[in-house]
From TrEMBL:
One of its GO terms (biological process) is protein autoubiquitination. It comes from the Eukaryota. GO terms for molecular function: cyclin binding; ubiquitin conjugating enzyme binding; ubiquitin protein ligase activity. This is DEHA2F05082p. It comes from Debaryomyces hansenii (strain ATCC 36239 / CBS 767 / BCRC 21394 / JCM 1990 / NBRC 0083 / IGC 2968). Pfam families: HECT_2 (PF09814). InterPro entries: UBQ-conj_enz_E2-bd_prot (IPR019193). GO terms for cellular component: cytosol; nucleus; ubiquitin ligase complex.
Length: 368
């Protein structure tokens, strides 16, 4: 088991390898490819996938190497020549935005991956449960990206006066009451949902929007607009079928909140108030790897499960976030899954919170 993290501010890669061999048995450390290091001992060798690619293919410079219990810790020092091929990861919390990246199932993503016929991309969004076609791109004229997950909140914050309405503009896509309304043949794409005005493929029951065929809950009625959550749909194009993990919604939501208010601590609760989690965002745009995965542009999260209902009553640096039960569970499972692949040496972190020492789990999550 191993863990690596690219540290752009000091232009190096931290490597931690779970290994019983004493450091005296270490023979060689070299690049086997642009994104893989081979660590050789007398009796065995370990291949470590790096989180970023580096240019040179000769011997790498090890700035530091030591053995702690059953762990070999290395620091690979990169040169400016190496880092020329590494994308910038030094954004501050206020500079980084989910809009800097291509969001899953955004206009740009759909344009890039789906086939075109007569300058129109061909794809279908289907019910996740029964595969009934809900949105067929051929039946819509235009697709628009939502500016932000928190668009309506920012509208209330920035607009002091409601602009004069144009009586001749019958098909407006925005109104300054904080609502965004698609035209009849348009689809507005948010980071975690699609907005449409009407559909014969859907059924409305109270405020729930359901699949017209199997009655699976796909979304909600939001100010007379049909709001379909991406994680309840599948994207089909050519021979491909994609799904949308709901934890991506949480990632995008947190990035937007950080950029809106600079808050990095959150009380996360399920809608039923049965589950609670406290999360502390330590960094954004992080590149890490283990033997099971490589995560790029990820969010570094410290978290713990506890009864946290009283933490943020008077603390303005902590914001509350309420998630649908299934979204909360998906987010929690993803954090735990990644945490399980991190060596014990880096799996937890002890920090002081509200004059109390807490043991946080360490994890990473991406928006892809």
């Amino acid at each position: 088991m191993y863990f690596t993290e690219y540290l752009p501010r000091i232009n190096s890669i931290s490597v931690i390898v779970e290994n019983n061999d004493p450091i005296g048995n270490l023979i060689d450390i070299r690049l086997s490819s642009r994104d893989q290091v081979l660590i050789k001992f007398h009796d065995n060798e370990i291949s470590v996938n790096l989180p970023v690619k580096i240019k040179r293919d000769d011997k790498i410079r090890i700035a530091n190497a030591n053995q702690t219990a059953d762990y070999l810790q290395l620091t690979i020092a990169l040169t400016p020549h190496d880092s020329n091929d590494v994308s910038e990861k030094t954004e501050s919390f206020m500079d980084f935005s989910s809009s800097n990246l291509v969001q899953k199932w955004s206009c740009k993503d759909l344009k890039t991956k789906t086939p075109q016929t007569d300058n129109k991309n061909n794809f279908k969004l289907t019910c996740l449960k029964c595969s009934h076609a809900i949105i067929d791109s051929k039946e819509y004229d235009r697709f628009f990206d939502m500016p932000s997950e928190l668009w309506s909140e920012m509208m209330e914050f920035w607009h002091c006066h409601k602009p004069a309405e144009d009586p001749n503009e019958k098909d407006s896509h925005r109104n300054y009451n904080g609502n965004l309304k698609p035209g009849d043949n348009d689809v507005i794409i948010g980071s975690s949902y699609f907005l449409i005005n009407k559909s014969k493929q859907l059924e409305i029951s109270d405020q729930d929007v359901k699949c017209g065929l199997c009655k699976y809950n796909l979304g909600i009625l939001d100010n007379s607009t049909l709001k379909l959550f991406k994680w309840n749909l599948a994207l089909k194009y050519k021979e491909n079928i994609e799904t949308f993990p709901s934890y991506i919604y949480v990632y995008n939501l947190i990035v937007d909140k950080i950029n809106l208010s600079a808050i990095r601590k959150f009380n996360v609760t399920s809608e039923s108030r049965q589950d609670y989690m406290f999360i502390w965002i330590m960094n954004i745009g992080v590149d890490v790897s283990t033997e099971n995965f490589v995560l790029n542009n990820s969010m570094k999260v410290f978290y713990y499960h506890d009864d946290i209902r009283g933490i943020s009553k008077d603390d303005e640096s902590i914001e509350s976030v309420v998630l649908q039960d299934d979204v909360f569970n998906d987010f929690s499972k993803q954090l735990s899954k990644i945490n399980n692949f991190i060596p014990n040496l880096k799996k937890t972190m002890t920090l002081k919170l509200d004059e109390e020492v807490k043991i946080f789990n360490v994890s990473f999550i991406t928006g892809f």
